[in-house]
Amino acid sequence: MISRGHRVYRGSQSAGSQLPAVLLFIFVFLLLAALMAFSLLPEYLVYHRDKVEMVVPMLEESGQPYTITAVAGPGPYGSPVNSSIQVAAPDYSVVDMAETRSLGYLQAYYIPMSKVTETSLDGAVKEAQRSISAMGAKGLVLEMKDESGKLAWMSNVARASSIASNSNWDPSAMISELKADGWYLAAKVCCGVDTQLAVKDETTALRDPNGAVFYDATGMFVDLWNRDVRNYIIDLCTDLIGMGFDEIILARVEHPNSTVIYTRDIAATLDRQACVMNFSIAVRRGLTNIMAKNGTHLDAYADHSVLGADTVNGQTLSNLLKVFDRVVISTGTYGQDAPVFTEAKIDSTLRFVPQMTWGFGGGSWIIDPNAPPPA
């Protein structure tokens, strides 16, 4: 059309230009419908013990609501069911973790923790040298952790700091000097009796039938089944190996001769031997890599009763020798003890280490002035 001398054009709109608006309308409609269905759905669901039904009154057939029945789940048990977990007794006959191929004689002098101090260790080493140098020996066994739970060194282990077990002395420099001077070093670490840990963290402690922390004349017992206890020992031994110790000797790897309450329920279904072996295997596995890297050996202190046919603390000689490279036993009857090993075809000169008041050539021993006198 023409208006006042101007031509005005009104273009036509195609169907394609309206498509986005149509699609948006459909999307909004479907979204609202879905939200409405979701909000109304629970009103039509009927829950039964063994199935779920959807009852829709508006879809009545013959005057009855239309019912959609879900797939039925398992029906209820007809009678009470008793369930229990049966734990089979472990079989240790296949355990073979000891590393004996590189063993040499362990000939050493024992230094108790009371002398492993900044002011006393040097004198104790000189005393050891006077005692064993004539036999051509140059080894030391240092007690680095006793039943009190205190440490003879300032460790890098966080738990030791948190329970105030660390010493304020770092013997690393002196250990390095001893190594440079040709000394062979073994560290004794107490495991099952740790008064400091039991007091500071009672979740790791064994308890008597009345619920009190279990103890005897030597100190308070911790639970060897407890993972925190195991990890703590692994961390301490790792620290000692890093300082340069050639062997680690675990002491008090034993079960008390009493009825106790454990920190793990499963422990109550297993015997004392399982307690000792489970702990020993776990610690050995935890130290495998660093021991292989440093050529370190892992030994165990055992009670003299382990040489007999029966023990009450969970230790047996055959089991200990499956996990540990050597067994150290304080004795005054070496002549009667050594045949127990030889009759079992075990090298008593390498794997049996008597801790006693005297030494000899051609075998392993630890001289301890406080050991039982010869019988």
Features:
single chain; 375 residues; 30% helix; elongated; 2 domains; 15 strands; three-stranded antiparallel β-sheet
What do you see in this structure?
This protein has 375 residues and is α/β, with parallel strands linked by helices. It has 2 domains: 18-69, no CATH class; 107-367, TIM Barrel. Helix content is 30%, strand content 19%. The chain contains 9 helices and 15 strands. The chain has helices at residues 19-40, 121-132, 158-162, 172-180, 195-200, 227-243, 272-294, 317-323, 334-343, and strands spanning 2-3, 6-7, 45-47, 52-61, 64-69, 107-111, 139-145, 184-190, 215-216, 219-220, 247-251, 297-302, 326-330, 352-356, 365-367. The strands form 4 sheets. An 8-stranded parallel beta barrel has the order 6-7-8-11-12-13-14-15, surrounded by 4 helices. A 3-stranded antiparallel sheet has the order 3-4-5, with no helix packed on it. A hairpin with a 2-residue loop joins strand 1 and strand 2. Helix 6 runs parallel beside helix 7 (272-294). The protein is elongated. The N and C termini lie far apart (135 Å). The model is unreliable at 55-73 (pLDDT under 50).
